[in-house]
Write a structure and sequence with these properties.
The chain has one domain: Rossmann fold (3-Layer(aba) Sandwich). It is 40% helix and 20% strand. The protein has seven helices and nine strands; from the N terminus they run ααβαβαβββαβαβαββ. Strand 1, helix 3 and strand 2 form a beta-alpha-beta unit. The two termini are 33 Å apart. The model has no long low-confidence stretch (mean pLDDT 91).
Length: 241
């Protein structure tokens, strides 16, 4: 009897949480759509960052004066962020990696349509097996091609002060996204913010915790994503719950 009531309570709490997240996304989308011409269609998919997450990123770019963004997993976020950079006349640059070449062609076309491609460098990088022990804490042997990633990161003229990790997919390992921070750690600025999507899943939540043990930053779990900040940063969460 008691167990049935607990199950019903958990289900109710979960449903209420979904309603809250939907409201947050609707709130965020109102601001995001103002960046685009009237009647524009933004191609959100089940794999896209939530609008609220993207709004948080936009706040962080503006208030903390981010100059170099590194993104693993290109998508709607790339389009919105680049448009935000264009509209606000920012000097911010984006280096974005994705392993799906066809998808990158779609993103590139959207960037051109909204005249905001100049701030973005889209890089196609296939997933490949690597032997770096420090990059595979959970025996995740696949990640973006390290030669391709390092080659492009080494061309950056500024330190990385904003990282967005929403890829690759977890087809090869539940912990495949862990590799991102060990690879780029030496290129991080003194002041930065890292966004990791999908922390509603236990694996991403654990990855973020492991990163923070390594980085010794300020970790915060949101509803569906998490952040690590370090250095002098303004709080940029769009809403206080």
């Amino acid at each position: 009897m008691l167990s049935n009531k607990l199950r019903k309570l958990k289900k109710t709490i979960k449903e209420i949480d979904k309603i809250h997240r939907s409201n947050d996304d609707a709130y965020a989308l109102q601001f995001i759509l103002k960046l685009f011409p009237e009647y524009s269609y933004l191609p959100f998919t089940p794999f896209s960052l939530n609008p609220f997450t993207i709004l948080h990123i936009l706040n962080d770019i503006l208030f903390n004066d981010r100059k170099q963004i590194l993104e693993f997993g290109s998508g709607i976020s790339t389009i919105i962020i680049s448009r935000f950079i264009k509209i606000n006349n920012l000097e911010t640059k984006i280096l974005s990696f994705d392993n799906n070449e066809g998808w990158l062609k779609i993103i590139s076309k959207e960037l051109e349509k909204y005249n905001c491609s100049e701030s973005v460098n889209l890089v196609h990088s296939e997933l490949s097996k690597h032997n770096k022990v420090t990059y595979k804490k959970y025996n995740n042997e696949y990640w973006y091609d390290l030669n391709e990633v390092n080659k492009n990161i080494n061309t950056l003229t500024k330190k990385i002060d904003l990282v967005i990790v929403d890829g690759p997919s977890t087809d090869t390992s539940n912990y495949v996204r862990y590799t991102a921070i060990p690879v780029i750690n030496e290129m991080l600025s003194k002041s930065y913010c890292i966004f990791l999507d999908d922390t509603k899943r236990p694996y991403e939540k654990e990855i973020l915790l492991e990163w923070n043990i390594y980085l010794k930053g300020n970790l915060r779990y949101q509803k569906v994503y998490g952040t690590i900040t370090k250095g002098d940063n303004f709080s940029t969460n769009p809403l206080s719950h």
